[in-house]
Batch of 2 targets.
Target 1
Amino acid sequence: MSGFAYISFWLNLLIPGRCLLCDGQLSYQKPHQVCSKCWAQLPLIRYYCFDCGRPFSSFNNQSGPASHNCGNHKAEIKLYFRRARSIGLYQGDLKKLIRLFKYHKKSSLGSQLAGWMIQHMPKEFNPANFDYILPVPLHIKRLRKREFNQSLLLAKSIARYYQRPLMISNLYRRHYQQAQAQLKQRQRRLNIKGAFLVRQPDKLHRKSILLIDDVYTTGATVGECAKVLLRAGAERVEVLTLARTEEPV
Ligand SMILES: [Zn+2]
Ligand SMILES: [Zn+2]
C-alpha cells in the first residue's frame, strides 16, 4: 500500500460518509451508502395484481386485486410466467439509486438493494419455494461495457438469503439488441424475440424457476425468458424484480 493509499484508507474509516440520496452524514464509512431514513422512504408497491404484479394505488375490497382489474392480461401479450412481483415503483429516489447502481458502476449498491427487496418481500411470495434462482442474462458485449450484470448481483444475494441454487449460464443472450429502454411496448416485444437460448435443457426438466431482473417495464424481456425456459422443459417460471415502471392504476 502506498503512503497516500494508506492515509486515505484510515481517513475513510475516521471520517463518516454521506448518504447518496440526501447527503446527510452517516455514522459509518462504507462506499455508496444510503441512510436509514432514505431507505424507509423509497416508494414501495403495497397493492398489486396477484398475477402480473401491476401496481394498484389502493386495495379494492369489492373485486380484490384480481386479474380482471388489471387490464394487462387482455392485451395480446402472453406473459408466459405464472406470477410476477416487484418490490418498488421505478420513480423518485428508487429510480435514482437504480440508475447509480447500473450506469455509474456502483455495484456495491447491489447487495443493499437486494437486502431492501428481502425486507419487503410480499408474504405470499417465497423465493425459497423454487428449484433455481435465475438472473436475466446480459449480452456479453453489454456485460463488458457495464462490467457487471445488475440482475446477477441481485439474484446472488437473494439466492444466498433463501438458500436456493443460482442458475447462471444455462440461459444466455445470443443477440445484441438495441437497449429496450428506448423502445415502445410493441417494439420491445419484437426486439427481444428470439434473443435468449438455453444451453442445457435437461437441467430445466420439471424445475421451478424464479427469474430476477432489476426493472419490469412491459414484461417483454422476462416474458421472452419465461417462454424459452418453459419450452426447454421448465415446469413453472415466476418473476421477481426490484422495481416496476408502470404508474399504479
Ligand atoms: Zn439519506
Ligand atoms: Zn395483472
Note: The longest strand covers residues 208-216.
Target 2
Amino acid sequence: MYYSGDSHNGTVKCALCPHGCHIQKGKTGICGVRLNNQGKLFSTNYSMVTGIHFDPIEKKPLYHFYPGSSILSVGTFGCNLQCVFCQNFHISHPSNMEILNTKSVSLNRILKASIEYKDNCGIAYTYNEPIVWFEYMFDIAVPARQQGLKNVMVSNGYINRKPLEQLLDVVDAFNIDLKAYTNSFYNDICGGSLQPVKNTLQAIAKRGKHLEITNLVIPGLNDDTKVFGEMVKWIAGELGNDTPLHINRYFPSYRLQIHPTPTETLLRLRTLAMEMLNFVYIGNVSQGGDLSNTICPQCRKVVIERSGYSIGSKGIDNQGNCAGCGRRIVVL
Ligand code: SF4
C-alpha cells in the first residue's frame, strides 16, 4: 500500500512515511523491509512475528487506558528511524536475519488468542516500529475491532498523513515517542525530522483517540531545561494538559554508550512538566511510589497506585472517574 511505480525504470516511490524513499528494483527503503520486487512494493515482514506476549498494558506504557488489564503485544522487524540509542536494535535493524527468531503467525491465531485470554483488552502493535508493518497491522486491526478488542499502537509517529488517517479509523490508543524537541536531535541522532511527529500527535488528538507520550531523556542530548519546557508547553497547548507524559530514564544501548540519566535530571524535568501537565510519570527507575502513581488533579487523592507494572488500589469508579470527586481520569 502507499506507493507509486515508474514504469520506465522500475523504481517505486514509497509514500508511507516522510522519508519518501525512491527504491530501485531488488532494494528496500530505509526501513529495510519494504522491497521493490519487480516494480511492486512488497512488505517482507507481512505476518512475520518476532515477539508475541501478553503484557500488562502499563508496560506499553499506557497508564490511562484500561489500567490493570493485559494486552496481547505483537511485533515484527524493521524501523523507519535509526536512533543510535535504540533499545530494540536487534529487531529494528537486524544485522543477521538468520538469528532472528521470526515465525509466520496467522491473523486468526492472533485474534483467537486475544479473545480467549482472560482480562485481555486487545492487541498492541509494539516492540519494533509498527508503521513499517502497516498492511498486516491494518489487516488484524479491522477484525479485532469488529470483535470488540481495542487496538493500541506504540510508535515513533513517523508516518504520512494519509496512512495515519487510515489507522485512526481502527486504532483506539497510542503511545508515541516524542524523542526530543529539536529538529537537530531527530536529524543527527534518529535520522528523521521533528515536524512529522508533531503532525502525527496533533492528528491523533484531533480525532479524539487516547494518546500518551514517552520522552526518553538522554544526558547531554535532550535534557536541556529550556527546550524540554518548550516541548511540554507545546504538548499542553496543542494536545491538552491531560495528555499523560512518561519521562523515561535512558540506559546505554546499541551505538550510544554514555552514563544512564541521573535521577536528579528526571526529577527536575518532572517538576517542570507538572507545572503544565496533569499526569507526569517517571519510567525505567526502580523507585516507584509518587513517580508512577496517578493523582487526581482536582482532589489530589492517589487514584491509582502502581508498583512496577502492577496496580494496587484503584480509586476510580466504573466510568473512569475519580471515586472521590468525579473528575475524569482514565478510559475504561
Ligand atoms: S516506510 Fe520504509 S520504504 Fe517507505 S518511505 Fe518509510 S523508510 Fe522508506
Note: Residues 151 and 172 are 5 Å apart (CA to CA).
